[in-house]
Structure formats: structure tokens, C-alpha cells
Amino acid sequence: MAVENVLTQHIEKTPGVVGGKARIAGTRIRVMDIVIWYEKHGKTADEVVDMFSSITLADVHAAMAYYYDNRNEIEQDFKREAEIVSEMKAKYPSILKEKLRG
User: Which domains does the chain have, with CATH numbers?
Assistant: First the structure.
């Protein structure tokens, strides 16, 4: 089976589902979610599977293969999400932080 076939079996992008971002087929678990746990937090593939009961080991490896093949796309998704978080923090300051200061 060609790599493209394996990836399309495990990874899909659908407009309107999780913002059209690459995700594990049949789930709302984004490739970037897998990348965060595997690459950024150092979890093993088995640990990631244990965290998300609806995915398989093959899904995790396909997500990482997609990430390695499309690193710029996924890194841009991370950047856009960070920008949105910054905008929201500026627009809606933490009420708790204000109470703790007061």
C-alpha cells in the first residue's frame, strides 16, 4: 500500500470540521493535537493512544507522518491559534487575575 493511501485512510480534512484542519479520520482529534502530545510533551505513541480511546497506534504514526510531510502547514496552524489566544486574552482579561490583584 502506498504511503498516500495509508495517510488518506487515517488522515482527513473536511471544511467545517475542526476548522478544516488535518485530523484523524472519523474523529475530531487534530493532527496538531497528536503533535502536541507526541512531539512537544514527549509522550510515546502508546501513551497518546491511551489518552484518546478512539484512535489506534497506526493513527498516531500517520498523524506524525502527515506532520513531518506538512510541517509548515501544521506550524502555521499553531501560530494562528497562538495569535487567537493572544487576541482573546487582550480582549477578555482574566477576571480571576483582577480579583487576585485587588
Answer: 3-101 (1.10.10.10)
- Give me the amino acid identity at 5: N
Say what the pTM is.
0.82
Amino acid at position 96, single letter? L
Furthest-apart CA atoms within the chain: distance in Å: 62
pLDDT bin (cut points 50, 70, 90) of residue 1 is low
Supply angle C-alpha 78, 82, 87, rounded to 5. 150
On whether the CB atoms of residues 30 and 78 are closer than 8 A, the answer is no
Contact between 35 and 60 under an 8 Å Cβ cutoff? The reply is no
pLDDT tens for residues 67-81?
999 999 999 999 999
Q: Residues near 31 by Cβ (< 8 Å), separated by ≥ 6?
A: 11, 21, 22, 23, 24, 63, 66, 67, 74
| Sign of the alpha-carbon torsion through 32, 38, 42, 48 | positive
